[in-house]
């Protein structure tokens, strides 16, 4: 575990205090940190002065050897930051042994705490985040008529209390809504788009697997379907 301490100003009262954040979170060594990520505790800054709390999406790498993932959290990252991470990874994979080691990993870059948490949960469920992103777009398209006058801000995979799976639709202008999903739906998407998903996954570096990526997968598949129709 590697941590850093820095002075941070409270976003409410500007009071400055020390905040300890993590650079690397190795869940094999410290599995207890997972719960702290999932509850936001790890990212919570609590002001000693005014008592208010704020979330701090500090940059960190969360890795899990058992589930084979490396997830970077970099809030609002730009191309330059992403390239630096990719270069670091390339550098660290120069030995053949490391190449083998990191090659089979799910390497992602996430821009928000919620995205990071979702990817951890998806891996815990033994699911593929790429299939899930495509499934999300298809589900949202199904209900697009009902969403016309709403401001949908994000769609996140989650588990329900009864163990079932769902998508949580988070709106800017109303309460969240749930769409139930099933493993059957998931496997259908995997079967239909598995090839395109593989094609569209960057072979090197950290990938951004998000709605934009999933839309590209779907658009390309549709182009192909149309081409086959015309022939
Ligand atoms: Zn404060």
Can you tell me about this structure?
This protein has 231 residues and is of the alpha+beta class. It folds into two domains: 1-122, no CATH class; 127-231, no CATH class. Helix content is 40%, strand content 26%. The chain has seven helices and ten strands. It has helices at 32-38, 79-92, 96-103, 113-124, 129-142, 183-200, 211-230, and strands at 2-9, 16-26, 44-46, 53-55, 60-64, 69-73, 106-110, 152-159, 165-171, 177-181. The strands form three sheets. It has a five-stranded mixed sheet, covered by helices on one side. The structure holds zinc ion. Zinc ion is lined by residues 10, 12-13, 15, 47, 49-50, 52.
Based on the model shown, name its key terms:
231 residues; alpha+beta; globular; binds zinc ion
How would you summarize what this structure contains?
The chain is of the alpha+beta class.
Protein topology:
Elements: E1 2-9, E2 16-26, H1 32-38, E3 44-46, E4 53-55, E5 60-64, E6 69-73, H2 79-92, H3 96-103, E7 106-110, H4 113-124, H5 129-142, E8 152-159, E9 165-171, E10 177-181, H6 183-200, H7 211-230
Parallel strand pairs: 2-5, 6-7
Antiparallel strand pairs: 1-2, 3-4, 5-6, 8-9, 9-10
Helix pairs in contact: 5-6, 5-7, 6-7
The protein binds zinc ion (ZN).
Residues 10, 12-13, 15, 47, 49-50, 52 line the site of zinc ion (ZN).
